[in-house]
Design goal:
membrane, 198 residues, VAS1/VOA1_TM, VAS1_LD, elongated, 2 domains
Length: 198
């Protein structure tokens, strides 16, 4: 598959060539296509060659990726084929890249297999946080299930105040001041009692 741009600046006859392969995989029971190599040509000669990695899809699908690039910050799906050629001098990046080599119908792309991984860092972080929250919830439910009510309930009440007649043997040290008036004296007592329910 060749994209011909013609003359671009100092580049005469710029062509980007995609070398696609197709193969049959018994495990998936269908044909798959893949981008094997990318070549940059200008001045009627090959100037740079990149090997493509992980760019493949079922033959009846198209392949889509937000970035297909030779740069490490975009996951470097294009790798210079040799250290001896000029490929290392080039930086190639395709944005919103979509390709389909076979089974094209009515000039439209088929359903796209996206390059986004199912286990990106954001998804992994979400899974880890969900696992932590589930563990906390399970621990809380475990504690609630095994929570036992108190075996004893204490209820303390104060009895109504009453006046009890003081006897001489209960007076102790205060016996003399209370008898100074010559009349019988009474002491206000507040008695508490507790009920224990078992």
């Amino acid at each position: 598959l060749s994209l011909k741009f013609g003359d671009v600046g100092n580049l005469k006859g710029l062509v980007i060539r995609f070398l696609l392969t197709t193969s049959y995989y018994q495990l998936s029971v269908q044909n798959w296509f893949g981008l094997h190599r990318l070549q940059l040509l200008y001045n009627h000669s090959i100037q740079a060659t990149f090997n493509a990695t992980r760019i493949y899809a079922p033959a009846s699908y198209s392949y889509h990726c937000e970035h297909v690039s030779s740069l490490q910050r975009y996951d470097a799906l294009l790798i210079p084929s040799s250290a001896n050629d000029l490929s290392k001098l080039w930086e190639v990046t395709f944005i919103d890249f979509q390709i389909q080599g076979f089974n094209i119908e009515e000039g439209h792309f088929a359903y796209a297999k996206d390059c986004a991984s199912f286990f990106s860092p954001a998804i992994l972080m979400g899974l880890v946080m969900s696992l932590i929250l589930l563990l906390v919830l399970a621990y809380a439910l475990h504690m609630l299930i095994h929570l036992k009510s108190l075996d004893r309930h204490y209820e303390c009440k104060a009895s109504p105040a009453y006046f009890a007649q003081m006897k001489d043997n209960d007076m102790g040290d205060e016996k003399e001041p209370l008898r100074s008036s010559g009349n019988e004296s009474y002491e206000l007592r507040n008695q508490q009692f507790c009920k224990i329910y078992v």
